[in-house]
Amino acid sequence: MGEEQKMQEEEKPVRKLDIKGLVCPYTFVKAKLAMEDMEVGEVLEIVLDYPEAVNNIPKSMQDHGQKVLKVDKTGDKEWVIVVRKEKD
Amino acid sequence: MEFTDLQVQRYSRHIILPEVGGKGQKKLLAAKVLIVGAGGLGCPVGYYLSAAGVGTIGIVDDDVVEVSNLQRQIAHSTGTIGMPKVESAKKTFEALNPDVNVIAMKGRLNKDNITDVLKDYDIVIDGSDNFPTRYLVNDACVFMRKPLVSGAILRFEGQVTTIIPHEGHCYRCLFEAPPPPGLVPSCQEAGVLGVLPGVIGALEATEALKLILGRGEPLKNTLLIYDALTTSFRKVKVPRNPDCPVCGQNPTITELADYDAGYCQR
Ligand SMILES: [Zn+2]
How is domain B15-237 classified at the architecture level of CATH? Predict the structure, then answer.
């Protein structure tokens, strides 16, 4: 397969987490708990609607040694963050 | 186990710590800690372990609450004067955190009952105020290989040390035997600044949490001394004594004994 396709394969979320309606710090708490249940290398997709967390979650994930693959605005008040677990 | 929504909220400040996380919090909830004494040290130790969500806390003490305790024993209150200290503490700890199962044991540890009490717990925290109990608890923990966090307070000075039997020092490596009764300040002479057990108790609770989480470095082979008047912390190295009567190579103490005679019991 092509390089592009391979990249997409590796970034395919194995788990989706809907934290719409939650505010900080529970947005990150929930995302962290979900990551703890996953294996290193697996990818998590987080759907959220709390604007502050759009910046905070990626930053906290990076601080914890995880890899943020993308942050997309998917609606008027909806975002999707994709994170790959790099360490336990 | 899965966290309830309330637990996620209650422990959120733990969960977001990389060194704790959900996994560490579950270890805390599964842990069983025994606190010896529900006095100056036992109160803050139990209070913070309850807040932290340590799932099972045993507490043993044979006293009842008196008004003179309230200057420092923060788990008790004016309303619980006359109540056994372990009942008063249980009420306070369970009110703080209903996740915690507090096992209140009114009585005094002795050579005949201590093994049976200790066997159900992962970690022992000594907050006792007398040498007979301190040595009895040390010896039992060495025999049973139970980690022991030991604290002591007098006037403006406090000490903390963490004993991992057969890995690090024990209390007898430090002080081989209890001092003769006449040298120990009697109850009437022994004053203590009310906040001092709060400092030392919080340090003991911290040591216990680290042991449960398997994080950081415990005060193994180390005695920490705090002086409230000068606000100084001093760490003293305490190597294992190969000739220690209880944990040395040729131990002379091979069974538990009571050392009650001649000591002030309070
Ligand atoms: Zn020893």
Answer: 3-Layer(aba) Sandwich (3.40)
